[in-house]
Amino acid sequence: MTKKKPQRSAPPASFDQARDELFSHILRCGVMEAELEHQKDWFDDTMQYLTERYPDLADEDRANLRLLGERYCQPVVPHTAEAVGSATAE
Questions:
Q1: What is the pTM of this model?
Q2: Any domain includes 9
Q3: Between the CA atoms of 32, 62, 50 and 27, what dihedral angle is there, to the nearest 10 degrees?
């Protein structure tokens, strides 16, 4: 028997790289704490940058990236005492 060579993983797809870069930028730039108007301006500029950096992304991919980024910046929905109490009663 011959030993199998360890398979190298393929480099991440452009969408995955762009998504990871977007999330990294969001964290470093403090976008989550910004006003909604400033977030919109920031996303406009950042999506333009990502379009130039990843020209092989389709329009749908860029739209999905922006949607993921905007959702990532939304505040966490707090649990109400009523919802928590009903969950523990089950």
A1: 0.70
A2: no
A3: 20
